[in-house]
Request: fold
Amino acid sequence: TKARIGVTGLAVMGANLARNLARHGHTVAVHNRSRYRTDALLKEYGHEGEFVACDTPEELVAALERPRRVLIMVKAGAPTDAVIEEFAPLLEPGDMLVDGGNAHFLDTRRREAALRERGIHFVGTGVSGGEEGALLGPSIMPGGSRESYEALGPLLEDIAAKVDGVPCCTHIGPDGAGHFVKMVHNGIEYADMQLIAEAYDLLRQALGMSPAEIADVFEEWNRGELSSYLIEITAEVLRQVDAATGRPLVDVIADRAEQKGTGRWTVQNALELGVPVSGIAEAVFARSVSGHTELRRAARDLPGPADAPQAPPAGDREGRAEFVEDVRRALYASKIIAYAQGFDQIRAGSAEYGWDVDPGALATIWRGGCIIRAVFLDRIREAYEQESPPVTLLTAPLFAEALGLAQEPWRRVVATAAGAGVPAPGFSTALAYYDSLRAGRLPAALVQGLRDFFGAHTYQRSDREGTFHTLWSGDRTEIEV
Ligand code: NDP
Reply:
């Protein structure tokens, strides 16, 4: 019998997806540029299902049933193009090349257009959940044609995570839509992690709590509306003790956060689209700040507040519990902002590139398998399933209520952070966004006035139609232009 699907690229992600497919009873043809990975996979896990080991792309293609499905799981970038060029000439019209790597959605658009000319369906697919997700059930975000989803969807839904019996996989939209939403997913993940880190830092610095005590707090938070994978693993990381020194591991890890680039892509694209994703952007910048050793060393001796911390002292048990609760509310509110901004970007991208992405369906498949999986995503799904979906998630009844409850504590937390000299860029920018959207009038009016003064850039008036300019260097009367 022929294999249902082929996987090329058998590093951790490819090997685990191949095993996941085989464990679900699908015969999988497997191939890797260097043969040793194929051998290792068969030797260690060959007993888990039906694998067909292939030495060459030709062998892999020959092993597949029609229409052929080839899943590419190689290093993103030039290697993906190289592999496409190896396989495309071996395929026939109607066959499918699926790229599950972390490709930039513009590359996916380019590849899809080129392969469409040759009659081949190119399916750029976001896969989230890391190594473990790939094996046990990831969240899968396939782009590409509807037709390709008909042939591919059932297989992908089979191996995806399930929440309430619903697979965490759905057709996202044409060409680059899948990789686009995966990119924004990662941007949201950056923001989520930054907010968690700030919450930890405040409890640590303002209240002087130990990592183990903070782990207890996160464990408690994980039982409420914040319940999520990232909150859960935060407790685990904070509880970890370094074997070599006996200190909390978090205290011996170098405080320089790295990045592979998807957060940066998200912000770059948001700038192109003109969508304010300040929460995601601050998270990306916070990582860069952490990595700027030289800047940080140069600035180390700048003065801070005289008598930090500003939070309740050790004896004030009630005050401290209240502060912890304030931080929890600030975290939840800031998280709502970050997700609202991410979903705004998806809506803008969908309109710009003509994808028709369904945000409710997306929230549904992010409930499981992926890194940002959370109870919270069910609330987002509900918000988008309303008869008239909200313009922004902030005004969906459930979130509007949560923000209403959170806003006072949120302000106290940002004020405490500022007073204590603890950086909280994520919390602060989220609050500023909230207040900006709420504001009846913004000082953008003054910015327009300045632009008109130095550059005759003109302005509109709020009391009547038209475009105006003040003769700043003349008699300062206003003319209509
Ligand atoms: P890597 O990104 O480390 O890529 C290694 C694989 O790429 C190997 O199989 C390697 O073959 C192959 N490869 C590299 N260059 C070429 C080339 N020119 N021609 C053919 N094959 C090549 O593997 P991962 O498993 O970590 O990730 C695979 C993809 O999945 C990446 O695009 C990654 O961004 C994405 N991804 C990764 C996640 C993760 O958590 N790691 C999560 C989600 C997506 P060889 O053995 O011969 O060197």
Summary: Residues 277 and 341 are 5 Å apart (CA to CA). Residues 9-14, 32-34, 37, 73-76, 79, 82-83, 101-102, 127, 130-131 surround NDP (CB under 6 Å).
